Amino acid sequence: MLTWRWFAARFGGAVLTLLGVTVVVFVVLRTIPGDAVTASLGTESGTLTPAQRESLNHYYGIDKSWFEQLWTWISGIAHGDLGLSTTSGKAVTELLGTALPVTVEIAALAALMGTAAGIVLGVLAGARAGRTSDTATQGAALVGLAIPEFVVGTAVVTILAEVFSYFPSTGTFIPMTNSVSENLSQVFYPSLVLAIPFAANVMRTTRSEYVEMAEADYVRTARGKGLHPGRIRRAHILRNATIPIVTLTGIQFGYLLGGTVIVEQIFALPGMGRLLLTSITNRDYPVVQGTVLVIAVLFVLVNLIVDLLYRAIDPRTRAA
Length: 320
Description:
Low-confidence stretches: none
Shape: globular
Radius of gyration: 24 Å
Largest sheet: none
Organism: Yinghuangia aomiensis
Number of helices: 14
Domain ABC transmembrane type-1: 100-310
Order of helices and strands: HHHHHHHHHHHHHH
Mean pLDDT: 81
Helix content: over 70%
Structural class: mainly alpha
Keywords: Cell membrane, Membrane, Transmembrane, Transmembrane helix, Transport
Distance between the termini: 10 Å
Number of strands: 0
InterPro entries: BPD_transp_1_N, MetI-like, MetI-like_sf
Pfam family, one: BPD_transp_1
């Protein structure tokens, strides 16, 4: 049974985590050489007079002390104001509102494909542990983990263009509510690239848990009673192997939300990863801080959902 103490502990931990992320990102950004003025003007910033530089520093809000800047940022968060982009002049919430659905959809589709493929392949490998098919599946998983995403993404784009004369739709993002087919043509291949290492990790975890659970005493007892192998697999092996799989899936999904930079660049999709990379290049502090904060919030929410799933799957954790 969920208690207020449990929720209070999780909420307190989430607040401290987000506060820590906010402070760390704030400090790291300001220790990087250069500033918003230099990023926007380039070499021409060297020709500015002291008065002009002071005016621009005031415009970009970097003329104040770090403490004042941090306090202004945290106060804005408390009021739902993430500030304005120093590059485009648009509200950070507006930019994130456009980029967030793209990244979430790519990550969700990748997690769905990766989880489904990983569990199926893991069960097949675990049921045939030690055989040729098991070795081949584990080898394929290692290859999927070893090849960098930018290599897979570039290969996918090249193969589609050279072999099939097909170019994935890029540029302006088309929501699924407008056109399902055009939306999927944009997000399917980036999601596929991300799903490969995702599936490899899930497959390895599923396989190891399946092999371990298949040798448990209660599984042997179920076999001795003559239960159907399919029922043993579902009710005794997979059910007890679920928690590690849920843990891995939740953590990986959280990483996906902040790890779409490469595929969004390769497939030219206007998601949070691409927005973050562009903002770092332009020293657009408000956008970088807002993007990282949103990613951290999503990561915390994913962990909360995983905790709730724990309690639903394993009654023993409900007493914690």
